[in-house]
């Protein structure tokens, strides 16, 4: 009877080759079994196991592997209740890793560790007073993931940030910035937003915006400030974008309403044409405004003002570099405002 060996669940941050090494050395799984489960040639797994065995000369990596063995591969641990595992999504643990990598990202910063100690130290060579201490387990995790490389194997081992560590740090910082921007611009996704508009003052008196203006990309971008502390989008620019969206929505609504209404019309009854005429006029105004912007500017205005696409989505769809969309959108709104200023004698239909 063939007995199947149970797979030990280790934390998600553990590299795959380290998992296979521990499965082979601590769990007794053969090289062929590991290769069959991974769908690769046994020689690939063998090279990974030999490489991990060589890396155990590093005291931090050896300490990290010993810690994983104690927590997940001991006989009494296998039959106990599952232990809580820290995943990369753990906010507190991820913050500690990010802080350590930020300190190591300085040009002359090193991670120092003496074998047998419970702490490791990140210090800068030219300023000894600037240093932080981290747990041995955290330092071992960073070393096991290949984010630091050992530059000195003496009594006091020294490590520097590797290229993989810099790439990982860039991803972590970008993810933190994205989460902060979402919390600042949108807030909680579960929060219900009122569809009733708010009062907006203009030259003709107060008017009510008939959509959730807090959800529009223009409203979120208007809350940002430029390098001088001024609003990134002025009220006039936001109003120009809202006017374009109003005309666009009027034209779109007419395309859906009037063909349906013809089904319910009495054959001999007269059909009112003033509503359709207003919608056609609004569509013509939107078309003229987009045509006045020209290629490029009309694309970003149509996507962000009319389709309510986010800036990141619009940048990807248009093939632009990151964070360039808001600058181009502001230029488009400035041109749009100039176009509407030239039509000052015409009145807005909505408002």
UniProtKB/TrEMBL annotation:
What Pfam families would the database entry show? DUF6456
Query: Which residues does the UniProt record annotate as the domain DUF6456?
Result: 209-341
Q: Which domain of life is it from?
A: Bacteria
Record's InterPro entries?
DUF6456
Query: What is the name of the protein in this document?
Result: DUF6456 domain-containing protein
């Amino acid at each position: 009877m063939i007995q199947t060996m149970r797979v030990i669940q280790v934390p998600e941050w553990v590299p795959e080759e380290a998992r296979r090494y521990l499965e082979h050395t601590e769990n007794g799984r053969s090289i062929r079994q590991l290769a069959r489960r991974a769908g690769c040639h046994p020689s690939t797994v063998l090279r990974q196991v030999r490489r991990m065995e060589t890396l155990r000369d590093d005291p931090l990596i050896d300490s990290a592997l010993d810690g994983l063995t104690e927590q997940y591969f001991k006989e009494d641990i296998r039959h106990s209740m599952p232990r809580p595992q820290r995943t990369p999504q753990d906010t507190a643990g991820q913050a500690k890793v990010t802080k350590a990598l930020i300190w190591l990202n300085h040009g002359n910063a090193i991670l120092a560790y003496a074998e047998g100690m419970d702490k490791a130290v990140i210090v800068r060579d030219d300023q000894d007073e600037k240093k932080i201490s981290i747990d041995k387990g955290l330092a071992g995790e960073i070393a096991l993931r290949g984010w630091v490389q050992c530059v000195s194997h003496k009594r006091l081992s020294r490590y520097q940030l590797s290229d993989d560590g810099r790439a990982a740090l860039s991803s972590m910082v970008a993810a933190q910035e994205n989460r902060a921007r979402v919390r600042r611009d949108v807030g909680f996704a579960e929060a219900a937003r009122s569809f009733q508009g708010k009062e907006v003052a203009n030259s003709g008196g107060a008017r009510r915006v008939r959509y959730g203006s807090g959800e529009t990309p223009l409203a979120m971008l208007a809350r940002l400030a430029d390098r001088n502390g001024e609003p990134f989008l002025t009220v006039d620019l936001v109003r120009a974008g809202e006017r374009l969206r109003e005309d666009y929505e009027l034209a779109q609504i007419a395309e859906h309403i009037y063909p349906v209404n013809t089904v319910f019309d009495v054959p001999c009854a007269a059909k009112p044409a003033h509503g359709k005429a207003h919608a056609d006029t609004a569509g013509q105004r939107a078309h003229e405004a987009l045509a006045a912007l020209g290629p490029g500017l009309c694309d970003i205005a149509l996507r962000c003002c009319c389709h309510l696409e986010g800036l990141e989505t619009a940048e990807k769809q248009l093939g632009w570099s990151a964070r360039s969309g808001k600058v181009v959108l502001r230029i488009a709104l400035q041109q749009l405002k100039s176009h509407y200023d030239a039509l000052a004698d015409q009145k807005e239909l909505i408002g």
